[in-house]
UniProtKB/TrEMBL annotation:
GO BP of this protein: cell wall mannoprotein biosynthetic process; protein N-linked glycosylation
Gene Ontology cellular-component terms listed: Golgi apparatus; membrane
InterPro entries tied to this protein: Glyco_trans_15, Nucleotide-diphossugar_trans
Molecular function terms, GO-annotated: alpha-1,2-mannosyltransferase activity
Active site residues per record: E281
Cited PANTHER family: ALPHA-1,2 MANNOSYLTRANSFERASE KTR1
Organism of provenance: Collybiopsis confluens
Pfam families in alphabetical order: Glyco_transf_15
Domain of life of the source: Eukaryota
Protein name (record): Glycosyltransferase family 15 protein
Family: Belongs to the glycosyltransferase 15 family.
Keywords: Transferase
Amino acid sequence: MTVLYPKRYLTAVLVAVITLHYLLSITYDNYGRISSFTNISERIRTNEEPTEAPSIPDLNRLQYTNASGESANATFVLLARNSDLAGVINSMQSAEDRFNRFYNYPWVLLNEEPFTEEFKSRVSVLTRAPISFGQIPKEHWYQPEWIDEDRAREGRQKMMAKQIIYGGSVPYRNMCRFNSGFFFRHELLQPYRYYWRVEPDVRFFCDLDYDPFLYMQKHDKVYSFTISLFEWEPTIPSLWRTVKEFITEYPHYVENHNAMDFLSNDGGRTYNLCHFWSNFEIADMDFWRSEAYIAFFEYLELKGGFYYERWGDAPVHSIAAALFARRDQIHFFRDIGYRHDPFQHCPSGEQHTQNRCACDSKDTFGQNTSLPPVPLVKLTSSPLDYTPNSCLAKFEKLFG
């Protein structure tokens, strides 16, 4: 015989269960936790087929591989002081967002003083790639003792009187000398061949969906740039004379298929002041480590021009690349949008659109509304890259 319980009995049982659950929840802390739906759900999942535990990033290059599946032996290099923290963050974030978050090349940051813990912690969160922090050896940074300080001071005072930028700055001269002849000798850079130089407070405008390091490697390039312009002659009055003395004494270092025509309008008799703006450069450190370049730098060093005048690493690098490498080993990265105040290079046409460039293609280096473009070559960049204060047309004329 089937027994049918009245509905009132079922209601009473349900009320009793709910009341008991409530009393236990407020009386025993652990009861609420172990009886929660979340806990019950997790306990059920533990009886399911086990899944592989996620790997923990260890910030090495094996963990974060190049998006192309292939990588070059390369690194970013950034020279900065602790006071440059905000500018370093801006530059690294820009480089990471536009390129390196997909390629994970390491960073080497150098300073003439130890980096602070705050500096290191703030920049370390910007990338998944490895970061190394190094201190520059004193002998690679500070003015050598053999420099005649009276003569050097006199030279600085003359430049200050002419209102030449950094004319009175010794630290600026230290930086130019270091970038010319010592950065590639730093112990943290010894494992690497290629480097991409980044400075504080620069900006990269466009996505870069290929690896420029691999491009350099596969096409046998040793030096590359985005902006080319004229040097300020009062900062280097004796540099070209010194260069001519060097190539007269060491003619075997000069490459037969060189780019002398980029540097000189008269076959090398005078310097036309054209150079590559070296605050952006992607280059092969084996070129700087070569016998030819080391001999060249040491020759310049003994002349004292980094301190008696204001020789910059931009003309030094440019002259060396133009003379000791084949002209086809120098490359213009026209598709890399880049700004270092006060100048910038902005791609145009399809490159601007496809690479989502944030810059105005009409605002690119050489812009001067009072001067028309120079129609020396077929325009493959913005016309404003070819105005008279730019040397890009002269570079491209080497190849056409």
